[in-house]
Amino acid sequence: MLKGILKGYGPNARALKNTETLVVPIIDNTEKEIDLTRSMAEAMEKYPDANAVLVRGHGVYIWGPTWEKCKMQTECYDYLFEMAVKLEQLGLRKQFIGVQ
Fold first, then answer.
1. Residues with Cβ within 8 Å of residue 95, at least 6 apart in sequence
2. pTM score of the predicted model
């Protein structure tokens, strides 16, 4: 599923390799969506290769060059997030997921 995630955005974007680490920034939620603007922009600047930001207690924002690529990535992220939760529940996170 990593190969379905794009690294970067724009003409230089490419599929993530299975040997690379997927980093998804996590930001705190706010009462109003408009108030997420600053922390979302900071996450996007700090992680320019990311094309998703997870918002605590809300969900995930995912973007891509086309709606088709965005949909494909959304399906990949959904699977990867589900697997991460299952690994955590089984106590196997450290063996499979980088601890950050």
1. 87
2. 0.84
**Assigned token pair, 20:** 């690379």
Residue 92: helix, strand or coil by DSSP? coil
Integer Cα distance of 67 and 78 in angstroms? 16
* Residue 66, CA distances (Å) to 6, 48, 83 in order: 12, 18, 26
- pLDDT band per the 50, 70, 90 thresholds, residue 45: very high
> What does DSSP say about strands 26-27 and 14-15: parallel, antiparallel, or unpaired?
unpaired
d(CA 84, CA 42): 25
Q: Which residue has the tokens 């995930």?
A: 60
Token pair listed for 2: 């990593």
Interatomic CA distance for residues 7 and 20, integer angstroms: 10
The pair of structure tokens assigned to 70 is 């965005």
